[in-house]
Design goal:
Blueprint: H1 26-37, H2 53-63, H3 71-88, H4 103-121, H5 132-152, H6 163-176, H7 187-203
Helix pairs in contact: 1-3, 3-5, 5-6, 5-7
């Protein structure tokens, strides 16, 4: 201890670290903290042990993850995918895209919904800060943007998470539309991209992205063309 408990701020939580090895239990902390913030864990205090079966089952049920993927990998990579989407939208600095659902990431999600998400999907999430609604909306937006950029003729890779390629494609589109070349999917760019590609989006059946993310929010059906619905 670097202080005594009487002087320890009550707003902070003391978490016992087995063996005192922080690096060894880094992923344990990431997964348990993420699951708690995603509403999958109970009210028990945070610890660094493997999550209980009920918590794991709730995560798998909510996010429809594949049984072939381990819990730790699924939780951390799911958060990373959403963080990368926030980076592309200019709401999160790249150094925070580390797989931990922290206060900075939560604030970025709130800003994204206020600035972009609510306008695109005409809905507000009611299942937590990073519930299935937000996961599907974030990933759906960037996947849809990649497909729209490709239809427009912008040079983009097949994988939207090839961030360097996607940013080049965004810059290409922004230049052609005489927008500020931010290389980000900011609100003006998203709106211009939708206007420029709406005809192609409505006529192309190849824009459905299977095996990406499955969401249980039926209320979003038809309210956002780029919402991702598929089997994980």
């Amino acid at each position: 201890m670097v202080t005594n408990l009487s002087g320890f701020p009550s707003a902070l939580t003391v978490i016992p670290v087995p063996d005192g090895d922080l690096k060894k239990h880094r992923e344990d902390f990431f997964v348990n903290e993420n699951l708690k913030r995603m509403g999958c864990a109970g009210r028990a205090g945070l610890n660094l042990s493997y999550p209980v079966q009920a918590t794991e089952a709730k995560f798998n049920r909510l996010y429809h993850t594949s049984s072939r993927v381990g819990l730790y990998a699924a939780v951390i990579e799911l958060v990373k995918l959403c963080q990368a989407a926030l980076v592309l939208c200019g709401k999160l600095a790249p150094e925070y895209a580390d797989g931990l659902l922290c206060d900075v990431t939560e604030e970025a999600i709130s800003q994204w919904w206020n600035d972009i998400g609510a306008e695109v999907y005409n809905v507000e999430p009611s299942d937590g800060i990073l519930g299935p609604t937000t996961v599907a909306a974030l990933i759906g937006l960037v996947l849809g943007a990649r497909n729209r950029l490709h239809a427009y003729g912008a040079p983009v890779a097949k994988d939207v998470y090839d961030l360097a390629s996607t940013k080049r494609g965004i810059a290409y589109f922004q230049k052609s539309q005489r927008l500020s070349r931010t290389r980000k999917l900011d609100r003006k760019t998203v709106e211009a991209l939708h206007r420029a590609t709406n005809k192609a989006a409505k006529s192309s059946e190849g824009w459905n992205v299977p095996r990406a993310v499955k969401s249980t929010m039926a209320e979003l059906s038809g309210k956002g063309q780029d919402l991702v619905v598929g089997e994980a």
